[in-house]
Specification:
With about 300 residues, this protein is an all-alpha fold. The chain has twelve helices and no strands.
């Protein structure tokens, strides 16, 4: 079942990517905290629904799962900040190289093993993610040069533009590694998911106090629809992800990280943008990797 859970996570997390970008205008310096409010609020509601539905959970689970929760939430906050400074098509492939980070940690530190075919599939997906980021960067530079524009360093090569997705990659990869450890006998999947969602809810409360009470910002719900949709997608993706990771961390992690490729497809369909031949080729390579993982 890990394969199908992974596909569901890819679908919803790619949607979360798209709507998070739509809800992160460069002029709003509080957009990342508003994203935390939206995502944490939706997750909190879902957590209470699960608890009332009889899912086993104790407050101690929050403490047990806190190392993974903290790494995931911190990486996401940094990712939301980065969306103000860098295009989604460049940021997402960098961020989602975290699956390869998690796979390498599992391989070297836990002694997990992959079959030769699975290793080949991981290489295909990881290579596709990297190639996509290179293609998008070159395409952006060429378009700007043709238009006689000097690239804004905030959106291309500056330290701040690249630092946030790189930090996301490192922290999310480490979080996935810790996640695999905790789910291997320390906490059940459903309890871990509730613990994560309630921790995110606490961060949402902190964000609300900081933005609305301390900084006196006015929240207009009608203007925050993309953030709310992103929260719904993030919650659904997280639910599928936690079960996929529990069953097969070393293979599911890099597979799910390929959702950045689905994010690009969503952006092209929704925003009516076109893909180049090279982009179609890269997506096809990643698709082959996903199919191989599903057959193994």
């Amino acid at each position: 079942m890990w394969f199908w859970y992974s596909l569901i996570a890819i679908l919803f997390w790619s949607g979360s990517d798209l709507f998070s970008k739509m809800g992160s205008p460069s002029e709003d310096k509080y957009s990342h905290w508003k994203m935390v409010m939206a995502v944490g609020g939706v997750m909190g509601i879902h957590a209470f629904v699960l608890i009332l539905g009889g899912v086993e959970f104790t407050p101690r689970d929050i403490v047990t799962y806190l190392p993974a929760s903290a790494l995931y939430i911190l990486s996401m906050i940094l990712g939301y900040v980065g969306l103000r400074y860098i295009m989604l098509s460049i940021s997402t492939p960098i961020c989602n190289s975290s699956g390869a980070v998690a796979a390498l940690l599992c391989f070297f530190l836990l002694g997990d093993r992959m079959t030769g075919l699975q290793f080949f599939a991981v290489c295909l997906i990881t290579g596709a993610v990297f190639a996509l980021s290179v293609i998008e960067k070159r395409k952006d530079d060429e378009l700007r040069a043709a238009a006689g524009q000097v690239p804004d360093p905030r959106y291309t090569k500056s330290v701040i533009a690249v630092a946030f997705p790189l930090l996301y990659c490192a922290l999310d990869g480490l979080g996935t590694f810790v996640d695999g450890l905790l789910l291997d006998g320390y906490i059940e999947e459903a309890s871990a998911n509730i613990a994560y969602e309630l921790t995110f809810l606490l961060m949402a409360v902190f964000a609300f106090v900081y933005v609305v009470i301390v900084k006196k910002q006015i929240i207009v719900l009608s203007k925050e629809k993309p953030k709310l949709v992103a929260g719904l997608c993030e919650t659904a993706g997280q639910l599928a992800y936690i079960y996929a990771i529990a069953e097969n961390t070393i293979v599911a992690a890099p597979m799910i990280s390929s959702y950045c490729i689905a994010s690009l497809l969503w952006a092209r369909v929704v925003l009516k943008e076109k893909l180049s031949f090279k982009q179609y080729l890269v997506i096809a390579v990643a698709a082959v990797g996903i199919v191989i993982m599903g057959m193994e």
